[in-house]
Specification:
With 63 residues, this protein is α/β, with parallel strands linked by helices. Helix content is 37%, strand content 22%.
């Protein structure tokens, strides 16, 4: 079973680079671009790891 990672990064270029790399390493990657979206996914999904940017729109990564 592939490990599931939630990537929370507001910079879309950085998010794409990290996502592409993780997918190449056979991870399933879910992405969120702000803190509220991240919390929503956190509540709904079963995750193995969260990669979290601290400076996010709407809700900080230090909540």
């Amino acid at each position: 079973m592939r490990k599931r990672i939630l990537l929370v990064e507001d910079d879309r270029e950085i998010s794409k680079l990290i996502t592409d790399y993780l997918k190449q390493e056979n991870f399933t990657v879910l992405t969120a671009f702000d803190g509220e979206e991240a919390l929503s996914l956190f509540d709904k999904e079963e995750l193995d790891l969260i990669l979290l940017d601290l400076m996010l729109p709407k809700l900080s990564g230090i909540f």
